[in-house]
Specification:
Largest sheet: 8 strands, parallel, barrel
Shape: globular
Number of helices: 14
Number of domains: 2
Order of helices and strands: EHEHEHEHHEHEHEHEHHHHHH
CATH superfamily of the largest domain: Aldolase class I
CATH class of the largest domain: Alpha Beta
Strand order of the largest sheet: 1-2-3-4-5-6-7-8
Radius of gyration: 20 Å
CATH topology of the largest domain: TIM Barrel
Strand content: 5-15%
Mean pLDDT: 94
């Protein structure tokens, strides 16, 4: 393997309620990701047991890597610097590939409890959290952070980024929306460029990349070499590969590869959840893939009415075997 640094990196985003260890495993099998981040671990009252971190990131039991060998960083969410530091030190004993801090979650329940993007009105608190966690974690474990542009304005975006940098965060992911923006387009990529110019640490651009064309547009506007892919990577499981290959792809031809990924996902999800839960997980993924693949739309329609795994399996087998899945 060459020691030369690649010209860019793609990172798979943490997506609460969507990208768990199974979907991370399936998506990284397709290749193209430098690393990925777990759903957040909520830190609110105590130092959590190792089992809490392993539940969110079973990859910790396999050198903090997915089956494809992609490193997995564990994300923490909270507002108490000392408690976050204590939990970071505890999870560090499990040798994660990195620890990430969540200042981007826009969920009302989380925000009401002073978590995620709700902290973006207090750059000093962000600095204290970053400094406490960095001091608590061995130097060889990267500490990174993900932030939005603010709560309802971008007024403190640069201050927040500088505060995290001064606290010792080594890389910063910027989701180019405020909390109030939610996931509504457009993403404000120009603000990522402003943040990149305001700090010395690497900035990773995130938000509204669904296609290869979107990726190139984001890089042109933000000036960032590295990009984090979120819902776009779920809607098109081959997006990272397409970006590396520099081609838009053909949804009809590429469905063969996607069908195999769906089959793999279905096998794994049935082992993890109850029979009445697995169809919902499949439909959630297919629902997003309908944006990229007409075949996913047809498959979604075929399984939509079913509530039990035993009813979904024959339908999947029929649809996926037809394309060699």
């Amino acid at each position: 393997m060459s020691d030369t640094q690649p010209p860019f990196r793609l990172i798979l985003a943490p997506m609460e309620g969507l990208a768990d260890d199974i979907l991370r495993d399936v998506l990284t099998q397709a290749g193209g990701y430098a690393w990925c981040v777990t759903e957040f671990v909520r830190v609110s009252a105590t130092v959590l047991p190792h089992s809490a971190f392993i539940r969110i990131s079973p990859e910790l039991k396999q050198s903090s890597r997915t089956r494809a060998g992609t490193p997995v960083r564990v994300q923490l969410l909270g507002s108490d610097p000392d408690l976050l530091a204590a939990n970071a030190a505890h999870v560090a004993r499990l040798h994660p590939a990195g620890i990430d801090l969540n200042f981007g979650c826009p969920t009302p329940l989380i925000n009401r409890n002073r978590g995620g993007a709700a902290l973006l009105d207090d750059p000093k608190l962000l600095n204290r959290i970053a400094a406490a966690v960095r001091a608590a974690v061995p130097k060889e474990i990267p500490v990174t952070a993900k932030m939005r542009l603010g709560i309802d304005s971008t007024e403190q975006a640069l201050d927040c980024a500088r505060a995290l940098e001064m606290g010792g965060v080594q890389e910063l992911v910027v989701h180019a929306r405020t909390k109030e923006d939610g996931y509504r387009p457009p993403a404000r990529w120009e603000w990522i460029a402003r943040i990149r110019e305001a700090v010395q640490i690497p900035v990773i651009a995130n938000g509204e990349v669904w296609t290869v064309a979107d990726y190139h547009a984001m890089r042109a506007v933000s000036g960032c070499a590295d990009v984090m892919l979120g819902r776009g990577a779920v809607a098109d499981p081959l997006l990272a590969r397409r970006i590396h290959e520099g081609v838009a792809g053909d949804p009809v031809a590429d469905w063969h590869a996607v069908a195999r990924m769906i089959a793999d996902f279905w096998i794994q999800v049935q082992k993890k959840v109850l029979p009445h839960q697995s169809p919902g997980r499949l439909k959630q993924w297919l629902g997003l893939m309908r944006r990229s693949y007409p075949q996913a739309d047809r498959l979604f329609a075929a399984v939509r009415e079913f509530r039990l795994a035993q009813d979904v399996t024959p339908v999947l087998r029929h649809h996926l075997v037809e394309v060699g899945g």
